[in-house]
Amino acid sequence: MEHVLLLFLFFIPILGLTNGTETEQDFTWHLKKIPQIVNERTFSLDSPKFEAKTKLELNSVCGIECQRKLPVPSLSDLKDLLSYETIFENGTRTLTEVNVLGLVLDPAGNTTTRGSSRKKRQIYGTDSRFSIYDKRFMTNFPFNTAVKISTGCSGILISPKHVLTAAHCLHNGKDYVKGSKRLRVGLVKTKSRGDGRKRKGAKRSRREVYAAQEDPEAATELRRQSKGGGRKQRRSGRKQGTSDGMPSFQWTRVKSTHIPKGWFKGVSEDIALDYDYAVLELKRPHKRKYMELGISPTIKMMPGSMIHFSGFDNDRSGQLVYRFCSISDESNDLFYQYCDAEPGSTGSGIYLRLKEPNKKKWKRKIIAVYSGHQWVDVNGEQQDYNVAVRITPLKYAQICFWIHGNDENCTQG
């Protein structure tokens, strides 16, 4: 049955690209003019208590049906939602109010697009995740961009000094979580004992063949590391860091953290997944290749509707886990998808590969932040989805501003 499913997955993109108008589909990163986020004033706030518990699964959040009913936010609303808090390593905190320039509001409101039928799962059916064991693989792009957050989440490198992750990894909507005062980011070490050992393993799987079609460079590395035991891994009970394939981390302190005000309760009536993102500034820059931000395209503009991301799932302690899957539903701000994932992978950067304008080269960019397995309200009932926060032009402008400190490098994305 597994082989039948994998064969079916293999042919989905091929059928999609050979059907009528799809043959002329242009899967390209189209540059868009980005609105400007401008700081208006910054003032100090009381230091937070840092007493909240980290909660990797959220309840009673606005789901697909709720998203359809949301009114179009006014410019005043957006200015309030995109204002942001900054928490520094010494525990001090500021609030920065912003203005939004050059934005054209969409009168159509918050729409949703449905793909395939919904299924209830967090891990369901055959576990389709790849555990990465080879250190050479872990430290090569794009997998080297995945980082571990000391509060138990994952993140992704977006500049020499910045990491993108989920806001709920640091803040529960009312207070900062325990451990976020002395926040650290773990980068997989490039060298450790045992590097270079040859391992015996299984043959290349059909899913790796499919991965080769979706992301050839990543699949090349998957074939290399698959010799270390294949993709089906179970918890062995061995202590972290004692077995082959367990990465060791180089931990770096976080200098400051930015979280949009839209995430905090009291600004919205409840936690708003639309704003479940945060940017961490590292105390010291790293020298690794990072992944650039991109504007999230619609499902129709994604090859095979496929997304990819890597993180540190809790049920595979210490392992870097890679997965890819198709998106089933989308709203203006969220992706609803069924990528197999467990707590610990939340905050991972979701990316895809599209062609660069006027070039034959394909390039990966981050288009969303994995918010995790969430319970959302659908027709008055609680249902579960794996949800990701899309990088819209406004969010691109804000994150880009946090990275560069000005909007000169954020006019197009």
TrEMBL record:
Gene3D superfamilies, sorted: Trypsin-like serine proteases
GO molecular function, one term: serine-type endopeptidase activity
InterPro entries the UniProt entry points to: Glutamyl_endopeptidase (IPR050966), Peptidase_S1_PA (IPR009003), Peptidase_S1_PA_chymotrypsin (IPR043504), Trypsin_dom (IPR001254), TRYPSIN_HIS (IPR018114)
SUPFAM superfamilies reported in the protein's UniProt record: Trypsin-like serine proteases (SSF50494)
Compositional bias annotation for Basic residues: 196-206, 225-238
Keywords, in A-Z order: Glycoprotein, Hydrolase, Protease, Secreted, Serine protease homolog, Signal
Region annotated Disordered, chain positions: 188-251
TM spans (from-to): none
Signal peptide per UniProt: 1-20
One Pfam family named in its UniProt record: Trypsin
PROSITE patterns listed in its UniProt record: TRYPSIN_HIS
Gene Ontology terms describing biological process: proteolysis
Compartments, record wording: Secreted
Keyword Protease set for record: yes
One GO CC term, this protein: extracellular region
Major location category of this protein: secreted
Domain Peptidase S1: 138-202
Stretches with biased composition (Polar residues): 242-251
Family recorded in the similarity comment: Belongs to the peptidase S1 family.
Protein name: Inactive serine protease 35
Species this chain originates from: Cariama cristata
